[in-house]
Amino acid sequence: MTVVILGGMKVAISVPDRVHRAADRVARRMRVPRSRIYVKALEAYLAATSEEEITRRLDAVYGAAVGPADPFLAAASKAALRRSR
User: What is the pTM of this model?
Assistant: First the structure.
């Protein structure tokens, strides 16, 4: 599948030589412009660091662990709350 980007913003960035060489190798291997590699990497980073994605991942980890409270902990929490009022 070939993806063509029409238009777009030209951006000058500085990257470490090792990153540039790695991106160049991947671009040659995939037969796509090197800029496409940078765009895909930035899109993946932005998606992975979006607030919605982070919340979804945390919910996946901690949401499944939510269950009935331990009776002792529930009673101790209620007692501590009553004392703090």
Answer: 0.57
39 occurs within a structural domain: yes
Q: What residues make up the domain containing 63?
A: 17-84
How many structural domains does the chain have?
A: 1
Q: What is the pLDDT along the chain (85 residues), one digit of tens a residue?
A: 555 555 788 889 999 999 999 999 999 999 999 999 999 999 999 988 888 888 888 888 877 666 667 888 888 888 888 888 7
What are the DSSP calls for 2-56, one per residue? -----S---------HHHHHHHHHHHHHHTS-HHHHHHHHHHHHHHHTSHHHHHH
